[in-house]
Amino acid sequence: MLHLLKIDLKKMTSYRTFWVVCGLYFMTLGFGAASGMEFLKWLGRTFEDFGQSININRIPLYHFPDVWMNLIWCAGLLKVVLAVMVVISVTNEYTYRTLRQNVIDGLSRSEFLLSKILTNVLLSLMSVVLIFAIGLVTGLIYSPSIELDTILTDVEFFPAYFLEVFFFLSYALMLGVLVQRSGLTIILLLLSHMIEAIITSNIDEYVPDLIPFFPMRSIWNLVPWPFPRYAFQQIQDFVSLKAVAIVIGWTLVCNYISYFKLKRADI
Amino acid sequence: METVLSITGLTKHFGRINAVNNLSLEVKAGQVFGMLGPNGSGKTTTLGMLMGVVNPTGGSFTWFGQQPTNEIRKKIGAVLEHPIFYPYLSGQKNLELNSMIKQCPAENIPKVLELVELTERKDDKYKTYSLGMKQRLAIASALLNDPTVLILDEPTNGLDPMGIAEIRELIKRIAANGKTIILASHLLDEVQKVCTHFAVLKRGNLVHYGPVDEVGSGTETVEVNAEAGNLNELLLAFQGTATINRENGSYHVALRDGFHSKDLNQFLFDKGVVASHLVTKKKSLEKQFLEILASS
Fold first, then answer.
1. pLDDT value, residue A105
2. Which residues of A are less than 8 Å from B90 in CB distance?
3. Is B21 within a domain?
4. What confidence tier does B214 reach under pLDDT thresholds 50, 70, 90?
5. CATH number for B276
6. Residue A100 near chain B (CB below 8 Å)
7. B232 and B145 belong to one structural domain
8. Does the beta-carbon distance from B53 to A98 stay under 8 Å?
9. Distance from CA of A160 to the nearest CA of B (A)
């Protein structure tokens, strides 16, 4: 297992695009997550009523336990950058025909796929660790009181976040294996949410029970939008097991389709 | 001799096209096996199936008497079609990656780089290499795991005459170490120069299969010229002469079985004529190849 991960990392670590994209992703993730208060201050400066009607310093954006869900939800918006990197990584293997050479050299097709999946796991884990570290630091800075059980509240959103990123990367990998061309795959990836939204909005009157089962909707349901709570609305502050089960199901389906396609194809 | 590769009834269809049709053959240890055929005759498809990148429609094959797996592929060095590497990695890094895939020690890398004379350029990116260097790196990569079998598909394709000579020398040097080599080519001269056995494919069918030595045997043709006005009559009078052709100012004499060029030379000398030009021509593989293709 570790051997396969090393092979894929060897391919990537000398690839400049990989460093640029990953660097941009983790930097944007890090700085973006840490500058929420600045964003609120900017809102206060720009819109006159904003600071008066709500005291921005009272919004507990970075207080434990709110910080976890806020950061995780925002970080989820950036996962598409990482997914683009995954698409480039897999479609390169087709355009350079190195997949073919890898198999000739003695890698089995399933080992090849596993090496890509393991990289996806690693990238997802790194996102989780980074968000956890930023949440911990900002939480410790801004929280008025620091108690262990408030810190530990809502940390179950981290496994959900991992699942969200890992599913999306598996989806990107599958698209790459099926389409094999980077440009087209990236466009499809970026349009996925929109295409699904068009489909669901057309059928939700007839089959409303089916809507949560759509793949993009299912990761949406995994980590709910947290900000309405600052407008005194109830939000779902737990991870829905149904959403978890649906996302795990889609993750398995995506990776199996990649496997099936790779196994059957002449490369 | 130990059988390295045994193919039975191997078939591949791409839609309606029969790329390879019911192919059966055996390659023994130590052979330099040439696969000949015009473009599109199924050579690369066959090698692709042997190396696990093309799924056969039917038939089977064994390597070293075992069912093919990716573990067995690690012990076979192969270059199919053109060289394939990661363009953004240096030659050295590409080989390091291959040694990880083949699970062989990275200590072999300097050795194979030395063999193909790429040591000086090893840290340059692959995409900066010339075609000849790419081909040589591919051969280095194939040799990385010290394989007992080497598969080369058109290894001299697109090279200049010097590059062709270099690769040919390299193949001979490798063959001298007792490795089994399977060489696909449409350059007949190349196969005749390095191969011990050969097979001919035509539109996916095996049309000939045998040792190269047999090609050279059989009747000889001698190209003769001499400063004698009656050379034509003299040659006709020689009892070993089967037919005579006049080409480019010299005579091409096809000899009967059992007669050789030295007999003809002796005959002319006895008649007081000294040949100014005398070349023995064995039947070339090219000629036989064309005959095989025409008759099949």
1. 94
2. 14
3. yes
4. low
5. 3.30.70.100
6. yes
7. no
8. no
9. 34
pLDDT for the residue A125:
96
**pLDDT-derived band at A51, boundaries 50, 70, 90:** low
Cβ distance of A101 and B54 shorter than 8 Å: no
* B110–chain A nearest CA distance, Å: 19
**Domain end (from B167, B191, B215):** B215
Pair (B157, B238) in one structural domain: no
CB proximity A180 to B under 8 Å: no
Residue A62 pLDDT grade (very low, low, confident, very high; cuts 50, 70, 90): confident
Q: What is the mean pLDDT of chain B?
A: 87
Between B235 and B282, the higher pLDDT residue: B235
CB atoms within 10 A of CB A136: 14
| ipTM of the shown complex | 0.88
SS (H, E, C) chain A: CHHHHHHHHHHHHCCHHHHHHHHHHHHHHHHHHHCHHHHHHHHHHHCHHHHHHCCHHHCCCCCCCHHHHHHHHHHHCCHHHHHHHHHHHHHHHHHCCHHHHHHHCCCCHHHHHHHHHHHHHHHHHHHHHHHHHHHHHHHHHHCCCCCHHHHHCCCCHHHHHHHHHHHHHHHHHHHHHHHCCHHHHHHHHHHHHHHHHHHHHHHCCCCHHHHHHCHHHHHHHHCCCCHHHHHCCCCCCCCCHHHHHHHHHHHHHHHHHHHHHHHHCCC
Would an 8 Å CB–CB cutoff place A13 in contact with chain B? no
pLDDT of residue B21: 92
Q: What is the pLDDT of residues A94-146, one digit of tens each?
A: 999 999 999 999 999 999 999 999 999 999 999 999 999 999 998 898 888 88
- Give the pTM: 0.86
Per-residue model confidence as pLDDT tens digits over A216-245: 999 988 988 888 887 777 888 888 899 999
Residue of B nearest to A104 (CA): B51
When CB atoms are compared, the residue of A6, A108, A267 closest to B100 is A6
Query: Total structural domains in chain B?
Result: 2
Please count the residue pairs, one from chain A and one from chain B, whose beta carbons lie less than 8 angstroms apart: 74
